[in-house]
Amino acid sequence: MKEQSFEAGADMQRQTKENNAYGSYRTLGGIINEKDCVIALDKSEKTAAFNKTLIQQAENIAERAGIVLENSDGADPRVKLYAVLRADNKPEDVKYHHSQMSDQRLFAETLRMLGDTDALDKLVNAYHKVGTHCPICLKVVASGEQCR
Ligand SMILES: [Zn+2]
Q1: CA–centroid distance, residue 140 to ligand 1 (Å)
Q2: Does residue 75 contact residue 55 with C-beta atoms inside 8 Å?
């Protein structure tokens, strides 16, 4: 009896986790809509060949931030997801779209989408510096001001 209720609990936890993938992205400050996120994640897993320029772009951003990439089996999943999102075009009927984001901002969104808070911290620390223009939040950073 005890075991049974444990199983039920595990199932429920799993389900909650799936349902909340987009929820945790929003909690981390993500602003891309759910449909675009789902499509991009799906594409990044199924696409065989990525745009090499976009892959290189993401690798450069990651490298500057000191994010260690996992390249042993093709490109890193974070880099692949970035390449998918960067390749998206803005539909005519929407006002704001992730295609309008800076490269570093879009990479930050990618990390939020994958729930990689360690890498996100590294990225923000590398680019969000007091007195300089931050390419993620697009502001000249004042002391104590948080990146978003
Ligand atoms: Zn910033």
Answers
A1: 8
A2: yes
In a domain, 14, yes or no: yes
On whether residue 145 sits in a domain, the answer given is: no
Does residue 69 contact residue 59 with C-beta atoms inside 8 Å?
A: yes
Per-residue pLDDT reduced to its tens digit, 102-145: 999 999 999 999 999 999 999 999 999 999 999 999 999 999 99
Q: Is there a domain that residue 42 lies in?
A: yes
Contacts of 125 (CB under 8 A, 6+ apart): 65
Burial level of 28, CB count in 10 A (0-12/13-18/19+)? middle
Does residue 147 form part of some domain? no
Cβ-proximal residues to 64 (8 Å cutoff; 6+ apart), any chain = 126, 127
Q: How far is the CA of 120 from the centre of ligand 1 (A)?
A: 12
Kindly indicate the confidence band of residue 74, based on its pLDDT and cuts at 50, 70 and 90.
confident
Q: Rounded to the nearest whole angstrom, what is the distance from the C-alpha of residue 136 to the centroid of ligand 1?
A: 5
CA 73–ligand 1 middle distance (angstroms): 32
Query: What is the count of structural domains for the chain?
Result: 1
Residue numbers of the domain that contains 11: 2-127
